[in-house]
Amino acid sequence: MNKEVKKILIVDDSPKDVELAIAALSEKNLANEVVVTEDGVEALDYLFKRGKFAGFDNGNPVVILLDIKMPRMNGIEVLRHIRSDERFKYIPVVIFTSSREERDLVDSYKLGANSYVVKPVDIIQFIEAIKDLGQYWAVTNQPAPASTQQD
Predict the structure, then answer these.
(1) Residue-level pLDDT at 26
(2) How many angstroms from the chain centroid is the CA of residue 9?
(3) What b/e string do you get for 40-64 counting C-beta neighbours within 10 Å, with b at 16 or more?
(4) From CA 151, how far away is CA 146, in angstroms rounded?
């Protein structure tokens, strides 16, 4: 049986955080390809196959790690777009942010975030959090059947 390797989409404008996340995921030996977009606009371009991602057809990511505080379009707006489209409605979205604002937490869950994780300041804890998230969402979690997702 040929199983498609699902992608992990990281949406974060911090190159340092992205680098640490990729290193942590590879340390966990996850076979998933990691796609990185630097802000909300680019993330939606990736999902909707627009702009530099036009013609790109490799299916939906298995999970989206989404920062909130980003230029051009914040993570809350990205989540609103994702959850309003049937094609992306069942993709797990993990808010992975430095924001401890209650408003961000409440808005994220109201819009259908699957998890809200505050980025640890300590580098070791940060790496462990990413490893745990990657393992759970990309390997352990059973995604919604393809019949519920329109591609």
Answers:
(1) 84
(2) 5
(3) bbbbbbbbeeeeebeeeeeebbbbb
(4) 9
The sign of the dihedral angle between the CA atoms of 51, 53, 57, 59 is negative
Residue 88 contacts residue 148 (beta carbons within 8 Å)? no
pTM (two decimals): 0.87
DSSP letter at 53 equals: G
**Position of tokens 């498609």?**
4
Per-residue pLDDT tens over the stretch 59-93: 789 999 999 999 999 999 999 999 999 999 999 99
Write out the two tokens for 126: 């940060």
Domain 8-139 has CATH 3.40.50.720: no
Q: What are the residue boundaries of the structural domains of the chain, listed by start?
A: 8-139
Rounded CA separation 54/151 (Å): 14
Amino acid at 140: T
